[in-house]
Design a protein that fits this description.
With about 150 residues, the protein is α/β, with parallel strands linked by helices. The protein is built from five helices and eight strands; from the N terminus they run H-E-H-E-E-H-E-H-E-E-E-H-E.
Length: about 150
């Protein structure tokens, strides 16, 4: 993971934490930051092609699967742990948005852009790296989209 971050100009940004960062709440508490600054790397499966799509979302939001399906133009489903590991090289709870074993179509929800600095998983449930939203966009090549659930319900 360190070499992937180095290639992207983000060397020295990863941190191993003493406590688990498997959830956004755990990561926010461990880092002393807002839960919204934690970037969740969520992997979905497109049943029609058995391919993966990753959505980077703020830790304080939920992805609206119907919005994501409409954006892509076909149904998506939550990926199994085995599918996530096979397509990304990482286990759920530590899925990094960079250093993937194969290219994955990548989106970032606009809510991530609301912060000056964000934290994303760095390959394990206890490691994270920090970046500005612009650095994250550059590193991942993700397309900015609006797929978060409407907070009003």
């Amino acid at each position: 993971m360190a070499s992937a971050l180095e290639l992207l100009g983000l060397e020295g940004r990863s941190r191993e934490l003493p406590d688990s960062t498997r959830t956004a709440a755990e990561a926010g508490a461990a880092l002393g930051c807002e839960v919204g600054q934690i970037v969740k790397s969520l992997v979905f499966r497109l049943p029609s092609t058995d391919s993966a799509v990753m959505v980077l979302a703020s830790g304080s939001s939920r992805v609206d699967v119907a919005k994501l399906s409409a954006l892509i133009g076909e149904p998506v489903e939550q990926a199994s742990g085995a599918f996530v590991r096979e397509r990304t090289g990482f286990a759920i709870g530590g899925v990094a948005p960079v250093g993937l074993v194969a290219p994955v179509r990548m989106y970032v929800d606009r809510g991530v852009l609301a912060f000056d600095r964000v934290w994303a998983a760095a390959g394990s449930p206890r490691t994270v790296f920090d970046a500005t939203p612009d650095e994250l966009l550059s590193a991942t090549g993700a397309e900015v989209v609006d797929v978060a659930e409407d907070p009003a319900g």
